[in-house]
Design a protein that fits this description.
alpha+beta; 20% strand; 41% helix
């Protein structure tokens, strides 16, 4: 077993650890439009592919092109030699050297070019370097293609663990004229699938490195097929103000974006700039559902938003 192999027991222990550290409340920031009002009325949230998000680095991975290419060559060197009929051109001793090399393709290239006595050592080295460079660049082109595939197949819905962020209200609640749906995670029972698919976002400067997962897949070894979901919870520190938790579901590219069922919100918060008309829309739905509503106001002393409860919990 390699260090990148993941067992079912390890997965269960990781999920149990995460479950013990879920936030008590989640907040979904929304502008007020037909889609968000429908989500509020019908107790749903919108799941969409990661490529619809405003971060082009969603689900982005990187890997060592050299390491993966070298391991792939070692795993397939026999097929390569047979397909190219290299046994006709290389001696058994030379083939043994190729098989024993840490980088069989490099060794094979040197042997084949070295057979041309009219090529000087300097020119030979230049040719080898050029071939390796082309091979690496072709392999590196696979990185953005793989990332696009992961983005299209990963369904995500984002939440924040923080209600009073001035920036979040500005960016995701229509410049403070929208609303926020609060979900009480403590009421989600053990075994609720929403607890399982909810993940914290990890903010790091470097892209998620999937090298060991690709190496593990070569030669039909055990494969950690969770690496796409792991990539989906890595984002740049530039986004850390969002304090994000997200649903991550690797549904595949064939599944369309869709609404996802949620419990009824535990509370509703309206922005400090909400219009009278939109205020009426939100209040009527909340009253029908018996959900407490607060309206955010600006602190006169600091950069801080304050929720002000509008009466008691509204009842139908």
């Amino acid at each position: 077993m390699t260090d990148s192999t993941i067992t079912l027991d390890a997965i269960d222990r990781a999920y149990a650890l995460k479950d013990r550290n879920l936030p008590s409340k989640l907040y979904k920031f929304r502008a007020i439009n037909d889609f968000s009002v429908s989500n509020f009325e019908n107790d749903t949230v919108w799941l969409c592919s990661a490529d619809k998000y405003n971060d082009p680095y969603e689900c982005a991975t990187t890997w060592s092109v050299q390491d993966v290419l070298r391991e792939h060559t070692k795993s397939n060197i026999n097929n390569l030699i047979a397909h190219a009929k290299l046994e006709e051109h290389l001696s058994p001793a030379e083939l043994a050297v190729v098989h024993a090399a840490d980088d069989p393709m490099m060794e094979l290239t040197k042997l084949l070019i070295g057979r041309h006595e009219d090529i000087s050592p300097v020119k030979r080295d230049e040719m080898i370097t050029a071939l390796i460079d082309v091979s690496n660049r072709i392999s590196a082109d696979n990185i953005p293609r793989m990332n696009c595939l992961i983005q299209r197949g990963m369904k995500i819905c984002s939440f924040s663990s923080r209600l009073d962020s001035v920036v979040m209200w500005g960016h995701y609640a229509d410049s403070h004229s929208g609303f926020v749906m609060e979900y009480d995670v403590t009421t989600w029972p053990p075994g609720d699938i929403r607890r399982r698919i909810l993940h914290p976002v990890i903010y790091r400067q470097r892209l998620f490195d999937a090298t060991k997962y690709h190496l593990q897949a070569i030669g039909k070894k055990d494969f950690n097929n969770l690496f796409g979901a792991i990539a989906a919870i890595h984002k740049s520190p530039d986004w850390s103000y969002e304090n994000e938790w997200r649903f991550v579901i690797p549904m595949g590219e064939s599944f369309s974006d869709q609404n996802y069922p949620m419990p009824t919100p535990s509370a509703i918060y309206m922005g400090s700039r909400i219009s009278a008309n939109d205020r009426g829309i939100i209040m009527r739905i909340a009253e029908r559902k018996g959900i407490p509503v607060s309206e955010m106001s600006l602190s006169p002393f600091e950069f801080c938003l304050i929720p002000n409860l509008i009466g008691e919990a509204l009842h139908a």
